[in-house]
Amino acid sequence: MQQYETLIVLTPLLSEETAKEAIAKYRGILTANGAEIINEDSWGLKKLAYPIQKKTTGYYHLTEFKAPGELINKLEIEYRRDERIMRFLTVALDKHAIAYSEKKRSGAFNQKKEAKSQTEEVAG
User: Fold this and answer.
1) Number of domains composing the chain
2) Which pLDDT value is given to residue 112?
3) Does 103 fall in a domain?
4) N or C, which end of the chain is more exposed by having fewer CB within 10 Å?
Protein backbone atom coordinates (compact mmCIF):
# COMPACT_ATOMS: atom_id res chain seq x y z
CA MET A 1 0.00 0.00 0.00
CA GLN A 2 1.23 3.46 -0.96
CA GLN A 3 1.01 6.46 1.34
CA TYR A 4 -0.97 9.46 0.06
CA GLU A 5 -1.91 12.95 1.16
CA THR A 6 -5.06 14.67 -0.07
CA LEU A 7 -6.06 18.28 0.43
CA ILE A 8 -9.62 19.39 -0.25
CA VAL A 9 -10.97 22.93 -0.37
CA LEU A 10 -14.64 23.10 0.55
CA THR A 11 -16.90 26.01 -0.35
CA PRO A 12 -17.10 28.68 2.40
CA LEU A 13 -20.89 28.79 2.16
CA LEU A 14 -21.14 25.58 4.23
CA SER A 15 -21.95 25.63 7.92
CA GLU A 16 -19.46 24.08 10.33
CA GLU A 17 -21.63 20.94 10.68
CA THR A 18 -22.03 20.53 6.92
CA ALA A 19 -18.27 20.84 6.38
CA LYS A 20 -17.62 18.20 9.06
CA GLU A 21 -20.28 15.99 7.47
CA ALA A 22 -18.57 16.24 4.06
CA ILE A 23 -15.19 15.38 5.61
CA ALA A 24 -16.75 12.42 7.46
CA LYS A 25 -18.20 11.16 4.16
CA TYR A 26 -14.75 10.96 2.57
CA ARG A 27 -13.21 9.48 5.71
CA GLY A 28 -15.89 6.77 5.46
CA ILE A 29 -15.11 6.13 1.78
CA LEU A 30 -11.43 5.70 2.62
CA THR A 31 -11.95 3.31 5.54
CA ALA A 32 -14.65 1.31 3.71
CA ASN A 33 -12.22 0.64 0.86
CA GLY A 34 -9.37 -0.58 3.07
CA ALA A 35 -7.42 2.64 3.60
CA GLU A 36 -5.65 3.38 6.87
CA ILE A 37 -5.96 7.03 7.91
CA ILE A 38 -2.68 8.21 9.43
CA ASN A 39 -3.39 11.86 10.12
CA GLU A 40 -6.08 14.48 9.56
CA ASP A 41 -5.64 18.20 9.87
CA SER A 42 -8.41 20.74 9.43
CA TRP A 43 -6.93 24.12 8.57
CA GLY A 44 -10.28 25.90 8.76
CA LEU A 45 -11.39 28.87 6.69
CA LYS A 46 -8.48 30.38 4.74
CA LYS A 47 -8.14 33.06 2.07
CA LEU A 48 -7.59 31.66 -1.43
CA ALA A 49 -4.68 32.78 -3.60
CA TYR A 50 -7.16 33.55 -6.40
CA PRO A 51 -10.98 33.48 -6.62
CA ILE A 52 -12.59 30.12 -7.36
CA GLN A 53 -16.25 30.21 -8.43
CA LYS A 54 -16.32 33.90 -7.35
CA LYS A 55 -15.34 32.90 -3.78
CA THR A 56 -12.24 34.25 -2.06
CA THR A 57 -12.13 31.86 0.94
CA GLY A 58 -12.52 28.12 1.52
CA TYR A 59 -12.36 25.42 4.20
CA TYR A 60 -9.11 23.48 3.90
CA HIS A 61 -8.79 19.87 5.12
CA LEU A 62 -5.70 17.66 4.80
CA THR A 63 -5.82 13.86 5.13
CA GLU A 64 -2.80 11.55 5.13
CA PHE A 65 -3.54 7.86 4.54
CA LYS A 66 -2.25 4.53 3.25
CA ALA A 67 -4.35 2.95 0.52
CA PRO A 68 -4.19 0.74 -2.55
CA GLY A 69 -3.69 2.70 -5.77
CA GLU A 70 -7.09 1.78 -7.23
CA LEU A 71 -8.85 3.68 -4.44
CA ILE A 72 -7.45 7.06 -5.52
CA ASN A 73 -9.40 7.03 -8.77
CA LYS A 74 -12.67 6.22 -6.95
CA LEU A 75 -11.98 8.92 -4.38
CA GLU A 76 -11.25 11.60 -6.98
CA ILE A 77 -14.41 10.73 -8.91
CA GLU A 78 -16.39 11.30 -5.70
CA TYR A 79 -14.60 14.64 -5.21
CA ARG A 80 -15.54 15.76 -8.72
CA ARG A 81 -19.20 14.83 -8.19
CA ASP A 82 -19.53 16.74 -4.91
CA GLU A 83 -20.63 20.38 -5.32
CA ARG A 84 -19.27 21.25 -1.87
CA ILE A 85 -15.67 20.67 -3.02
CA MET A 86 -14.13 23.51 -5.02
CA ARG A 87 -10.64 22.00 -5.43
CA PHE A 88 -8.73 18.89 -4.39
CA LEU A 89 -5.23 17.52 -4.75
CA THR A 90 -4.02 14.00 -4.01
CA VAL A 91 -0.30 13.31 -3.90
CA ALA A 92 1.62 10.02 -3.48
CA LEU A 93 4.27 10.53 -0.82
CA ASP A 94 7.85 9.32 -1.27
CA LYS A 95 10.13 8.32 1.61
CA HIS A 96 11.35 11.89 2.12
CA ALA A 97 7.83 13.32 2.32
CA ILE A 98 6.81 10.57 4.76
CA ALA A 99 9.80 11.37 6.99
CA TYR A 100 8.95 15.08 6.83
CA SER A 101 5.31 14.40 7.78
CA GLU A 102 6.37 12.25 10.74
CA LYS A 103 8.70 15.01 12.00
CA LYS A 104 5.97 17.59 11.54
CA ARG A 105 3.44 15.50 13.51
CA SER A 106 5.91 14.87 16.33
CA GLY A 107 6.56 18.61 16.67
CA ALA A 108 10.29 18.41 15.87
CA PHE A 109 10.15 21.71 13.97
CA ASN A 110 8.52 23.58 16.87
CA GLN A 111 11.08 22.23 19.36
CA LYS A 112 13.95 23.83 17.45
CA LYS A 113 12.23 27.23 17.51
CA GLU A 114 11.52 26.92 21.24
CA ALA A 115 15.13 25.93 22.00
CA LYS A 116 16.40 28.84 19.89
CA SER A 117 14.16 31.36 21.65
CA GLN A 118 15.24 30.03 25.08
CA THR A 119 18.94 30.45 24.22
CA GLU A 120 18.24 34.00 23.01
CA GLU A 121 16.53 34.79 26.34
CA VAL A 122 19.51 33.45 28.31
CA ALA A 123 22.02 35.35 26.16
CA GLY A 124 20.00 38.60 26.26
Assistant:
1) 1
2) 60
3) no
4) C
